Structures are given as structure tokens and as C-alpha cells.
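Q: Start with the shorter request: fold the first protein.
A: Done. Sequence, then structure:
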Amino acid sequence: MATQTKMRYRRVAQNEEEIEERKRKRDAAVDQISTKIQAMFWVSLAAFVVYMTDLPRTVLESEKIDRVYLNISIVCLVINSCLIFYLTVWLPYVQKITLSWEVYCPRVIPTVTVVGIL
């Protein structure tokens, strides 16, 4: 008894436009996969560093850490996170604002920059 192999056939491109369209789609897929692999690498590397340095325990229990600067940096991080959430989620999806950030709220980006420098 012969085994049947399933072959997938696709239409042959008829002109240059179809060939270029397929190349563009393939390039976009390769670019997206590459981006996902790079993101996975960096997240894995960050998790490895946190694990190897025992970062949470060190931050919470070490006497070598200056708590004033740690608290200031945590406050600045929370402020920046709130402002970025406001710009990327609240305005376009909740308020349905279609204007660009520079027009609707021009002082937010300089504020994020100053808070990030602190």
C-alpha cells in the first residue's frame, strides 16, 4: 500500500507585482520573527541577571543601598510609567483622541524627559 504525502500547492505568480508582494510579505514576516527573537533574548538575559544577582532580596535587605535615592528613583519610575500609560493607552483608546501627542498635550514629553533624568 503506497503512502500518500500531503503536498501544499500554491498559485504561481503571474507578474512582477505578485512576486514583489510575496517578497514584501516574506520580509515583513522575517522582520517580525527577528524582533520577537531579539525581545525574547533580552528578557531572558534580564531574568538571568536578576536571578544571578538575587536582585529583589538585595534591594530590599541590603544595608549598602541608600534608601533616599532608591525611593526617589521609584517615584520617578512610577511618574514616567503613568505618563506613558496616559499617552499610549488612555488618550487613544479611552478618550478617543486622534491628535498627536505634541498637539494635544505638548508638555508631557519634556516632563517625562526631566523626570527620567532625575
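Q: Next, the second protein, separately.
A: Sequence, then structure:
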Amino acid sequence: VERYPQGHFACPDGARAMYLLVFPNRESAVGSLTGVLASTVAVFAAHPIEAVKVRLQSGERGGLVAASGSRWRQAAALFRRPYCGIGPHLLQYSALNFIRFGSFAAAKSYFQRRRAASAVAGWAPPP
């Protein structure tokens, strides 16, 4: 495989242009993918709790407001299918954190490079 001087692998120009359009630098790529991973874990942890909360508040699917069945059946119905409807929640938070974490990482690396360049030039910003 042919390597470029910067250490990048050779790839078609269209694929490289698309990659650089989505990820302007490595920090942005790592930040974006970290955001998607963090939001996925958070949604899988929080969605069942939110589903039970909504079922309790709305009284649907055997919530405690429902009139039929014993209290145990009503309580068990609250915990049935805890991941039902997780798709839109997962998509929303993954997209949001993809942008949020990627933008933060890109801005952080930009300001670190700028501070390093100004220190080399002889001017150091106050701590």
C-alpha cells in the first residue's frame, strides 16, 4: 500500500475529499465517534427508566392507573418491553453528540495549536 509523507494511506480522491469534509482533522473524528459511543451507552441505560416513567404518568400499558388485574400484574406490565421505541431516541442523541463532541474536539485542538504557535513566536498568553 502506498503511503503519503504525512502517514495517510493512498485512497481515491473522492473518498479522501468526503472524509476531510466530514472530519477536518483527527481530533474531530475521535471526538465525534466518542460522542456517538457515549450517547449510545447513555440511551441504553436511561431509556428503560424513562419508559417506565412515561407509562406511570400516562397510565397506559397496565400502569398503576389501570383498573383491571392485580397490582402485581400492573407493576409487571410497566417493565415489559423496556427498549420499545428506542430508535428515535438513539438517533437523536447520537446525531446531537456527534456534532457536539466533534466540534468541541476540533475547537480544542485549534486553540492548542494556536497557543503553541504563539509561544514559539515569543508571546505567551497569561495562564
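Q: Describe the second briefly.
A: Residues 58 and 65 are 8 Å apart (CA to CA). The chain has four helices and no strands.
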